[in-house]
């Protein structure tokens, strides 16, 4: 009965409600006592997080954009005079080659994560619910070990007297031990193994949501496995793939711990250069400008992503 | 016909064996570093440049408490992680509920800001905070590291909580208010218990993120004390000795034990509930 309320009945309800507040008719949008009262929970609940984000995310990011257009102080720090010098420095071949190299390594890492992660995500998604959640758990447990020690373990694994070199020389595949340490190659191994789970998770959840009936329909209509994959599975799981790209490419581009640990300070990427500007070199505006570059790239990728999926659909946890 | 079917079944079985093999290989890749880390905690060498034989001396050395820098760093990390977990969970849970339940003008903006620390490279945010802290004149130390950690933990807490709130919660809350509870009572007695699993998992997530963080802890640290991961990063230049491996091995064991206990408790509670 309640479902069939006419507009008239509703308006009389409204009037009845208003009668409670002294019988005066109140327009719907005015701040009735009930509305005023409901401000407090809003402030108490959404207030702290909003304040925190504005204070420690929005303001610092705006300030770093501002600083990137300032001049380097004589003894480091900032001299508040407008200049685009930092951006000119970025274009200098010395820095630009490093930026290009960082891009290449991040792209390779992302490519490898998609190539190896998608089949794994597919494998997990095809398992029954309970097995799948166990497999996901098993994927995350290694990440509770100290991240630095995990990277150090790759060094021990590939070092001159390590197990890999032992096997290589033992079976006569190489005469002398291979120097894996402090190379771009080992950095790539570290990045790939560090990022892979974060590529698997979003792809897993989008494959899991894929309806089996669609695949069956495709088979029934005569499409083979390859065609079904290309025309149904791949397009429908694309949001998950794009999340995976964002969640691997951007961190890989900004990393400095992986390069510091596995590159031994010999391999420099954007992240290392930014960090160094705040250590011994003390060129803050240059560090700020490089950070802005990373920000712009991130914003660009997010914009592309938002063209076909909501930010809230991105599976980040 | 039967033979054709048979062949198809056989082909399918072969494919599934291949898939299992692939999964095992990938999982091995994830567990290689953990296995190496644990193995080298039993290595009888001064520095881990090669395998020299089995020993438990590193564990004995660790618990003789002679290496105070290591223990100090661990305690510092733990203090920060616990504080960051408490603050982030409180702010994140309130925020998650508020952002899900209410509509307000700046909501879209705040929602966007929450995704910034998750997506933007951590070094960018760390550097941005460093510049503003120094400009304002804040001294670097535990406080600044804590702020840094909370800034990337809160968004994860918010996202986790938002995922756990459904329409059911609203119905329950309305029922509670109808039965005469005020807003605060409803929040404490109804809302919080109904999203308790989400709160636990977001607290766990915050703790693991904070205790393992390097970038914020490194950039926003004072001169006096560094966290365990930052200490390990700096030790890496000279070579890491076995006691660090021993300590981190114990840490992963404690974490896994905690996980097992948690799932046992959950199963026990579920069984008691069905018995009732």
Q: Give the largest chain-chain interface (CB within 8 Å).
A: A-B, 85 and 87 residues
Mean pLDDT of chain A: 80
Shape of chain A: globular
CATH architecture name of the largest domain in chain A: Orthogonal Bundle
CATH superfamily of the largest domain in chain A: MetI-like
Contiguous uncertain segments of 5+ residues of chain B: none
Give the radius of gyration of chain A.
28 Å
The number of distinct helices of chain A, counting runs of at least 4 residues, comes to 15
Largest sheet of chain A: 2 strands, antiparallel
Q: Please, what is the average pLDDT of chain B?
A: 85
Low-confidence stretches of chain A: 1-36
Radius of gyration of chain B: 25 Å
Number of separate helices of chain B: 12
Structure commentary:
Chain A is mainly alpha-helical and 317 residues long. Chain A contains 15 helices and 2 strands. Chain A folds into 2 domains: 35-66; 93-313, Orthogonal Bundle (MetI-like fold), CATH 1.10.3720.10. Chain A has helices at 7-20, 33-37, 39-68, 85-91, 93-126, 129-140, 147-158, 163-170, 184-209, 212-220, 225-236, 238-254, 257-263, 270-277, 284-306, and strands at residues 71-72, 78-79. In chain A, a hairpin with a 5-residue loop joins β1 (71-72) and β2 (78-79). The model of chain A is unreliable at 1-36 (pLDDT under 50). In chain B, α4 crosses α6. The longest helix of chain B is centred in the N-terminal third of the chain and has 38 residues, at 2-39. The radius of gyration of chain B is 25 Å and the shape is globular. At the A-B interface, α3, α5, α6, α7 and α9 of A face α1, α3, α4, α5 and α6 of B.
Structure summary:
The complex is a heterodimer of chains A (317) and B (276). Chain A is an all-alpha fold. Chain A has 15 helices and 2 strands.
Write the layout of secondary structure elements.
The complex is a heterodimer of chains A (317) and B (276).
Chain A (H helix, E strand, L loop, with lengths): L6 H14 L12 H5 L1 H30 L2 E2 L5 E2 L5 H7 L1 H34 L2 H12 L6 H12 L4 H8 L13 H26 L2 H9 L4 H12 L1 H17 L2 H7 L6 H8 L6 H23 L11
Antiparallel strand pairs in A: 1-2
Chain B lengths: L1 H38 L17 H6 L5 H34 L5 H13 L2 H15 L5 H23 L2 H12 L4 H12 L1 H16 L3 H5 L8 H8 L6 H34 L1
Helix pairs in contact in B: 3-6, 3-9, 4-6, 6-9, 7-8
């Amino acid at each position: 009965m309640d479902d069939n309320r006419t507009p008239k009945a509703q308006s009389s309800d409204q009037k009845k409600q208003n009668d409670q507040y002294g019988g005066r008719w109140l327009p719907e949008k005015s701040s009735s006592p009930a509305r005023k009262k409901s401000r407090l929970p809003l402030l108490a609940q959404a207030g702290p997080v909003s304040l925190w984000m504005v204070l420690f995310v929005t303001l610092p990011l705006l300030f770093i954009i501002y600083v990137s257009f300032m001049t380097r102080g004589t003894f480091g720090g900032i001299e508040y005079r407008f200049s685009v010098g930092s951006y000119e420095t970025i274009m200098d071949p010395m820095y630009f080659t490093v930026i290009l190299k960082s891009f290449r390594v991040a792209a390779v890492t992302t490519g490898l994560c998609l190539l190896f992660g998608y089949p794994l995500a597919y494998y997990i998604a095809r398992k029954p619910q309970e097995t799948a959640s166990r497999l996901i758990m098993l994927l995350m447990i290694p990440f509770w070990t100290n991240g630095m020690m995990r990277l150090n373990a790759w060094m021990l694994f590939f070092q001159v007297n390590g197990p890999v070199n032992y096997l290589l020389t033992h079976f006569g595949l190489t005469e002398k031990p291979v120097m894996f340490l402090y190379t771009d190659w080992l950095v790539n191994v570290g990045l790939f193994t560090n990022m892979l789970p974060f590529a698997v998770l979003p792809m897993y959840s989008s494959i899991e949501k894929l309806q089996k009936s669609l695949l069956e329909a495709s088979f029934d209509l005569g499409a083979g496995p390859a065609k079904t994959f290309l025309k149904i599975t791949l397009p429908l799981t694309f949001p998950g793939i794009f999340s995976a790209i964002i969640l691997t490419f951007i961190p890989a581009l900004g990393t400095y711990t992986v390069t510091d640990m596995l590159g031994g300070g010999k391999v420099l990427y954007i992240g290392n250069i930014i960090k160094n500007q705040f250590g011994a070199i003390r060129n803050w505006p240059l560090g700020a400008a490089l950070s802005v570059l990373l920000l712009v790239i991130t914003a660009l990728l997010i914009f592309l992503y938002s063209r076909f999926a909501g930010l809230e659909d991105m599976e980040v946890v | 016909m039967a033979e054709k079917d048979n062949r198809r079944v056989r082909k399918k079985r072969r494919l599934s064996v291949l898939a299992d093999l692939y999964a095992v290989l990938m999982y091995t890749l994830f567990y290689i570093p953990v296995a190496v880390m644990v193995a080298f905690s039993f290595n009888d060498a001064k520095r881990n440049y090669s395998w020299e034989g089995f020993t438990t001396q590193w564990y004995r050395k660790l618990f003789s408490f002679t290496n105070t820098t290591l223990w100090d760093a661990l305690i510092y990390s733990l203090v920060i992680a616990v504080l960051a977990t408490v603050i982030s969970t409180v702010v994140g849970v309130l925020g998650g509920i508020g952002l899900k339940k209410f509509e307000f003008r700046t909501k879209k903006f705040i929602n966007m800001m929450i995704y910034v620390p998750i997506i933007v490279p951590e070094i960018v945010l760390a550097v941005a905070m460093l510049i503003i802290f120094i400009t304002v004149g804040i001294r670097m130390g535990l406080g600044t590291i804590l702020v840094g950690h909370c800034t990337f933990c809160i968004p994860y807490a918010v996202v986790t909580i938002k995922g756990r709130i459904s329409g059911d919660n609203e119905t329950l809350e309305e029922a509670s208010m109808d039965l005469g509870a005020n807003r605060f009572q409803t929040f404490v007695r109804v809302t919080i218990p109904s999203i308790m699993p989400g709160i636990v998992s977001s607290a766990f997530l915050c703790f693991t993120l904070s205790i393992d963080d390097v970038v914020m802890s490194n950039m926003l640290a004072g001169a006096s004390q560094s966290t365990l991961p930052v200490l390990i990063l700096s030790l890496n230049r000279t070579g890491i000795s076995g006691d660090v491996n021993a300590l981190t091995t114990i840490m992963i064991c404690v974490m896994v034990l905690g996980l097992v206990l948690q799932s046992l408790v959950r199963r026990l509670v579920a069984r008691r509930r069905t018995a009732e």
